[in-house]
Amino acid sequence: xxxxxxxxxxxxxxxxxxxxxxxxxxxxxxxxxxxxxxxxxxxxxxxxxxxxxxxxxxxxxxxxxxxxxxxxxxxxxxxxxxxxxxxxxxxxxxxxxxxxxxxxxxxxxxxxxxxxxxxxxxxxxxxxxxxxxxxxxxxxxxxxxxxxxxxxxxxxxxxxxxxxxxxxxxxxxxxxxxxxxxxxxxxxxxxxxxxxxxxxxxxxxxxxxxxxxxxxxxxxxxxxxxxxxxxxxxxxxxxxxxxxxxxxxxxxxxxxxxxxxxxxxxxxxxxxxxxxxxxxxxxxxxxxxxxxxxxxxxxxxxxxxxxxxxxxxxxxxxxxxxxxxxxxxxxxxxxxxxxxxxxxxxxxxxxxxxxxxxxxxxxxxxxxxxxxxxxxxxxxxxxxxxxxxxxxxxxxxxxxxxxxxxxxxxxxxxxxxxxxx
Amino acid sequence: xxxxxxxxxxxxxxxxxxxxxxxxxxxxxxxxxxxxxxxxxxxxxxxxxxxxxxxxxxxxxxxxxxxxxxxxxxxxxxxxxxxxxxxxxxxxxxxxxxxxxxxxxxxxxxxxxxxxxxxxxxxxxxxxxxxxxxxxxxxxxxxxxxxxxxxxxxxxxxxxxxxxxxxxxx
Lengths: 421, 170
Ligand code: SF4
Description:
The complex is a heterodimer of chains A (421) and B (170). By secondary structure, chain A is an alpha/beta fold. Chain A has 15 helices and 18 strands. Chain A folds into 2 domains: 5-263, Aconitase, domain 3; 271-420, Aconitase, domain 3 (2-Layer Sandwich), CATH 3.30.499. In chain A, the strands form 5 sheets. Chain A has a 5-stranded parallel sheet, sandwiched between helices. In chain A, strands 16-15-14-17-18 form a 5-stranded parallel sheet. Chain A has a 4-stranded parallel sheet with strand order 10-9-8-11. The longest helix of chain A is centred in the N-terminal third of the chain and has 17 residues, at 73-89. Chain B is an alpha/beta fold and 170 residues long. Chain B has a single domain (2-169), classed as Aconitase, domain 4, CATH 3.20.19. Chain B has 8 helices and 7 strands, in the order E-H-H-H-E-H-E-H-E-H-E-E-E-H-H. Chain B has a 7-stranded mixed sheet. Chain B is globular, with a radius of gyration of 16 Å. Chains A and B meet through strand 1, helix 2, helix 3 and helix 5 of A and helix 4, helix 5 and helix 8 of B.
């Protein structure tokens, strides 16, 4: 019988001929990603197992990204300790406070390849399925055990396949698609499952858009989001001079738990409303909601395409007085590209506040925290109560086009109307 | 292993940002985390919870961020077990890994009220509501999971069983 890409990757990593959904396997890990705020607990767990040295320093990637640069004495102490650990353990791949968000940097620097098992002490590790890897988030103790032994136990997940067909209308993006999907399936709709995205729309999408989609798979409970590697994957890897051989794909007769079909030809911009990610509405239903702050960034939508989308709306215009527009490129690489392309200039001229690459206000850790009663609109991935600051603040999630148009008007705005205006 | 305490009832989709808000991620001492346990839903929780008390919740408990700070805060606040209709994946693993029993029981929300006294028998897979006398069965845990919990979590378990872990396929 045919196997899904997830079953095949996990079989190979576990030294098995075959692995079937439901089986528990012990998989060898290719990449372990650890951001600053979960690092201390992870290394503590490693030492608790009785092992003092990481199994392979070349496969461990550390990031100082969540509060970068440090905004408190505590954060500074964590960063200092992570730097010390990197040195002690001989971990070369420490990306310091100047690098950017872990997921963007890991992919961009060419550390992820199709067929790998990628685990991270961060729930959005599923982003890396965009490159055809089996990628999933784990807690610090799990990561500690990976650091000690290079292995983790995983239940091979059943797969939900999502076929997407059609062409995106103007100003409608992969973000709108994934919000639509989450709205339909619900926050538990893919619990413990692998979600395989396929179909013509996904095939025509670059890795950047695929990352946006895979990134938010965890918001419906998914273990991983994954896209089979193809010509677009090859293009991304070739730019990084990585080999593109021996890819793992799903068999044509692989067994799926459920199959969904989505069409994007008529898709409208979508907005996720407070306080649950699956509270998704077409933009028409929330248009005109006043906002205090707009955040464009994060591992969901902080890439060059996203900043360009925002700039295409804001170029030569001004952000509404009284609204704060915070732009945080996802990585230094994105920052430099946007700088050279004049995107940052256009955004700054329009009144945006451009911050250094980092997680920014995404999880309410530093820059751009919301006060009681304030309303934020963000291109990130979570709008839980208290996620971006006060539990009394409210957060809407949307695409960079919607974010830019809304910053312009001071209220949630359909970007298609702004363009026509 | 018997766990007995008062039930603290919560609803569906209680995420880790509610269990321990992001602003406390800079904490590294579990005792300090414990002082903010459940702050996003019930700020007085950490002061009122007693050792052995049991969290009873609806569906998808612990969704969102992978922060192990969240279950650590609950454990160190004294929570003896969490019983929910269903759990989010990473949170569930994290609980087991730190030795905090996470038990799935489909009927729990309809059978337990806030403040009820409960008694859990981990090995037999049963939960008794002492107020109503109702006894519920929860989805039994595989043996190696019960072992991980009773030996104090995955890291301590591995101290004892490291060789098997490295050499053997499961
Ligand atoms: S940008 Fe947001 S979601 Fe992404 S890793 Fe940082 S805090 Fe997490």
